[in-house]
Amino acid sequence: MKVLLADDNAERAQAMALILADDPGLTVLLLRDGEALDDAVLAQAPDIVLVDMSRPDRDALDGIRQVTARHPHPIVLFVDEDDPAFMEEAISAGVSSYNVLGVALPDVKPILRAATALFRLHQETRTGLVHAQAKLKERETVDRAKAILIKERRLGEPEAYRWLRRQAMASGKRIADIALAVVRDKEGLRDKEGLREKEGTCQ
Q1: Residue 74 dihedral angles phi and psi, to the nearest 5°
Q2: Which alpha helices (DSSP H) does 104-152 contain, by range?
Q3: Which superfamily, per CATH, for 2-107?
Q4: 139-196, pLDDT tens digit by residue?
Q5: Start and end residues for every CATH 3.40.50.2300 domain found in the chain
Q6: Phi then psi for 5, rounded to 5 degrees?
Q7: In degrees rounded to 5, what are phi and psi of residue 151?
Q8: SS3 category, 107
Q9: For residue 108, what are the CA distances in angstroms to 42, 159, 165?
Q10: How far apart are CA 150 and CA 142, in angstroms?
Q11: CA nearest to 99, candidates 37, 41, 52, 46
Q12: Could you tell me which of 34, 73, 86, 183 has the fewest CB atoms within 10 Å of its CB?
């Protein structure tokens, strides 16, 4: 596992890197001076990002938001001071694991593994939701297309669906794509008719 370590304290970053280096299964990557977190994630392709702050820094959350938006990764955040409001902001920004450090640095390896597992679960849930929404939208489009065919071709509901299926098989496309074409053709026709009526009214 490649861990990208971003810390505003060079001495503490070095101490954290030494802890991580004890595990042969981890490779530690460091954020270069002046390098944006998003750029580092893109360039170094880590498996997980570890951000360590000496105190809650809301400006630093912008970098985390950019990573979440452009290159989603599990992100572990360590802060020295407890701040419930900041914790909520950090989680909203995309942090998978929020931790308040004590005097001694903890064994971060279990934290990294837990954050990675939580991130994967979240991504799977999000992907499943997007897929379900897409399927629902396709089903609604098919229903709209069937309604158009029933009205214009005087077909029953089963015959309208079979018509869509035959068109899909003949063209090598999905039924949802054929249905979308039927709906768009109907909407285009309505737009043209509306434009004619508007022009006639103006005259």
Answers
A1: -65, 130
A2: 109-152
A3: Response regulator (3.40.50.2300)
A4: 999 999 999 999 888 889 889 989 999 999 999 999 999 999 999 888 876 555 454 5
A5: 2-107
A6: -105, 120
A7: -75, -45
A8: coil
A9: 23, 62, 55
A10: 12
A11: 52
A12: 34
Question: How many C-beta atoms surround the C-beta of residue 77 within 10 A?
Answer: 27
The residues pairing with 5 across neighbouring beta strands, listed in sequence order, are 30, 50
Tokens of 48: 């997980």
Average pLDDT, the chain: 83
Task: Give the pair of three-digit tokens for residue 96.
Answer: 């998978």
Rounded distance, CA 196 to CA 48, Å?
59
Closest Cα partner for 44 from 3, 81, 8?
3
Q: Are 47 and 26 in contact, with CB atoms under 8 Å apart? A: no
Query: What strand order describes the sheet that includes 97-100?
Result: 27-30, 2-7, 48-53, 75-79, 97-100
Residue corresponding to tokens 């593994």: 113
Render the burial of 61-70: b for 16+ CB within 10 Å, e for the rest.
Answer: bebbebbbee
